Amino acid sequence: MSRAVWTRRAQVDLVRIDSFYEQNAPDFADALGRAAIRAGNFLAEHPHAGPALDDGERKWLVPHTDYVLVYRINEPGVEILRVCHGREDGR
């Protein structure tokens, strides 16, 4: 079974994003976290779905948000490296 493994850095990104939104938009913060996890699970099953970047990493837009997962294909699925706003560099 394929799975998404979240690096410590990606986990810290999620906490940072959640902290940013929790005071003014807690419902959005919750929805974004759930959407990011669903996107990671999707990528575990469809690892080639996102476009490749120059360094072998790939990216995937978290649906209905401006956030992107930066990931790498590995065994047994994908490794989520970063979660960042689409306007951030993310590396």
List keywords for this structure.
alpha+beta; 2 helices
List the secondary-structure elements in sequence, H or E. EHHEEE
Sheet with most strands:
4 strands, mixed
Helix proportion range: 25-40%
Q: Assign an overall shape.
A: globular
- End-to-end C-alpha gap: 28 Å
Strand residue content: 25-35%
Mean pLDDT: 93
Strand elements, count: 4
Instruction: Kindly report the spatial arrangement of strands forming the biggest sheet.
Output: 1-4-3-2
Structural class: alpha+beta
The total of helices stands at 2
Structural write-up:
It is built from two helices and four strands. By secondary structure, it is of the alpha+beta class. Helix 1 runs antiparallel to helix 2. The chain has helices spanning 8-22, 26-45, and strands at residues 3-6, 58-61, 67-74, 77-85. A four-stranded mixed sheet has the order 1-4-3-2. A hairpin with a 2-residue loop joins strand 3 (67-74) and strand 4.
Summarize the structure.
With 91 residues, the protein is of the alpha+beta class. The chain is built from 2 helices and 4 strands.
Q: What topology does this entry show?
A:
Elements: E1 3-6, H1 8-22, H2 26-45, E2 58-61, E3 67-74, E4 77-85
Parallel strand pairs: 1-4
Antiparallel strand pairs: 2-3, 3-4
Helix pairs in contact: 1-2
